[in-house]
Amino acid sequence: MLKLTVKPGEYLLIGDEVKVVFAGGSANNLRILVDAPRSMNIARSSALEKKMAETEPGNFVKHYKERELSKEAQQKIRAVLMEERRRARAGQRA
Predict the structure, then answer these.
(1) pLDDT surpasses 70 at 27
(2) In whole angstroms, what is the distance from residue 34 CA to residue 66 CA?
(3) CA dihedral defined by 69, 16, 4, 60, rounded to 10 degrees?
(4) Is the pLDDT score of 13 beyond 60?
(5) Is the pTM of this model over 0.85?
């Protein structure tokens, strides 16, 4: 397991297809954005525990779509991802 200290706006790349962006938070809550292919199964631990599922790596757990994000939240996520892509492109040119 990897333990990191991150600042808002920093991100992790997992393989070639998954990006986890740290959007900020407080001492008790951390906001993250996960940009991954729809084919990947991503579930919160609380949802897994609620369904009494095993949380061991490799277990497949079917999850259900949560309620839709507000238009404002969707716009904020798009803005963060677009800024990160712009920074990545600018870094490649330098």
Answers:
(1) yes
(2) 15
(3) 70
(4) yes
(5) no
